[in-house]
């Protein structure tokens, strides 16, 4: 499933991941900026709220209702996956390769989570042109956005990965429910108390790691794909390999087929 979001200016509003060396300078008329903001709001609403009505049953997650919560979450995820078709066979193959080992080494105090967690959406930045790979290597493996691109040379897609049999899709709203349950969340300049008992309870179901900078959590099976840059000659896959590390994997177009590089083109540590 791919959600198309036209207007390459939307890249301005993407969350900045790690050390991507992107700088975007654009000048908009007031009317154009208004239209862009409206488009972003509509896209966000469509992406974040679709099909999550089961959350209304859990205004507060508790030890008692936790089994039912995860059962409903699984039902929701399976319903999405059942109709999920990745039409782009190249992207499908890349994502399958990168998620094949997802969560295989996760074990905290001999506790192996019941479920693997995948993102509901993976952002795909599509370049309909040849990328300068020399410059991309200088920029830590990431293609640099060119503000001179025509509208038909760039767009932002959002793709849903295929779910393994024991997988769940994580969304923003589900993340909020989980974060509220375990505590340790930043609000302004304060961070709430971490509820260690609740953390231990939830670890039986899903992987749980506290964010390196504090005030947030990773309910994620690693490695996880955060972004994909897709050009005619190069696919750059940005991965988070743990709660404090990440890397970038390149697939180079060789004689019409994208071949995975054996080593990351770059890696990082928080």
Describe this structure in words.
This protein is α+β, with helices and mostly antiparallel strands. 27% of the residues lie in helices and 24% in strands. The protein contains six helices and 14 strands. The protein has helices at 30-49, 66-82, 89-99, 133-138, 172-182, 196-202, and strands at 2-5, 116-119, 122-127, 154-159, 167-170, 186-187, 190-191, 209-210, 217-218, 224-230, 234-240, 245-254, 257-260, 266-269. Strands 1, 3, 4, 10, 11, 12, 13 and 14 form an eight-stranded mixed β-sheet that branches. The two termini are 32 Å apart. Residues 1-49 have low confidence and may be disordered.
Q: Beta-strand level of the residues, as a percent range?
A: 15-25%
Low-confidence stretches: 1-49
Structural class: alpha+beta
- By DSSP (H or I, 4+ residues per run), the number of helices equals 6
């Amino acid at each position: 499933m791919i959600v198309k979001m036209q207007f390459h200016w939307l890249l301005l509003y993407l969350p900045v991941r790690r050390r991507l060396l992107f700088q975007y300078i654009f000048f908009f008329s007031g009317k154009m900026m208004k239209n862009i903001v409206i488009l972003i709001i509509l896209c966000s609403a469509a992406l974040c709220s679709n099909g999550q009505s089961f959350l209304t049953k859990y205004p507060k997650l508790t030890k008692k209702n936790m089994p039912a919560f995860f059962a409903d979450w699984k039902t929701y995820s399976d319903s999405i996956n059942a109709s999920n078709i990745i039409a782009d066979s190249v992207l499908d193959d890349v994502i399958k390769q990168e998620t094949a080992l997802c969560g295989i080494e996760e074990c905290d105090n001999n506790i192996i989570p019941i479920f693997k967690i995948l993102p509901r959406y993976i952002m795909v930045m599509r370049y309909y042109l040849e990328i300068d790979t020399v410059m991309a290597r200088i920029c830590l493996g990431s293609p640099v956005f060119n503000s001179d691109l025509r509208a038909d040379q760039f767009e932002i897609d959002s793709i849903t990965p295929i779910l393994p049999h024991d997988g769940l899709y994580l969304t923003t709203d589900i993340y909020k429910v989980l974060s509220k349950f375990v505590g340790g969340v930043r609000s302004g300049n304060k961070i709430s108390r971490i509820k260690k008992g609740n953390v231990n309870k939830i670890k039986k179901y899903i992987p749980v790691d506290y964010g390196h900078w504090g005030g947030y959590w990773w309910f994620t099976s690693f490695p996880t794909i955060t972004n994909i840059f897709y050009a005619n000659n190069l696919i750059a896959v940005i991965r988070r390999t743990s709660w404090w590390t990440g890397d970038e994997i390149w697939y180079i177009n060789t004689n019409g087929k994208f071949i995975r590089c054996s080593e990351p083109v770059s890696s990082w540590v928080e």
